[in-house]
Design goal:
By secondary structure, the chain is α+β, with helices and mostly antiparallel strands. The protein has one domain: GAF domain (Beta-Lactamase, 2-Layer Sandwich), CATH 3.30.450.40. The chain is built from 4 helices and 6 strands; from the N terminus they run H-H-E-E-E-H-E-E-E-H. It has helices at about 5-15, 25-35, 75-80, 135-150, and strands at about 45-50, 55-60, 65-70, 85, 105-115, 115-125. The protein has a 6-stranded antiparallel β-sheet, sandwiched between helices. Helix 1 runs antiparallel to helix 2 and helix 1 (about 5-15) runs parallel beside helix 4 (about 135-150). The chain is globular. The protein starts with a helix and ends with a helix.
Length: about 150
Amino acid sequence: MDLECYDSLNRQAQALLSGEDDLVAAMANFSALINDAVEQLNWVGFYLLKDEQLVLGPFQGKVACSRIPLGKGVCGTSAAEKKTMRVDDVHQFDGHIACDSASNSEIVIPVFDNNRLIGVLDIDSPILNRFTKTDQIGLENLVKSFESALFG
């Protein structure tokens, strides 16, 4: 997807989230929107920070890991470092947690309520090298819209 497509998706996300104040409902629809609009994905969802670990939240895809320690795997590393992690080949990522053996690449974006980390958006693909810098920018912008809609 190019940035123009992501901008269009972002407008759809803003309309979808407008007036929604329930975090679970917003996360469920947001992950469904991305799963439906972005090609070559096999998992899209949230992990929420609770008691120094990430706990599975709303998602689209196969059964997933329920809990991920901070600093472990791509999701835990993204949360611990509070930065986006874009991994071209998860099998080469030290400490990768294989929830779905079909996943080959991954992008994880931290989600903040103002400056407080509340979790991560995790997106997996069965395709190696699936996520480009353009995807990263587009998805980070989507997460910013999500944060703005839910947390002001």
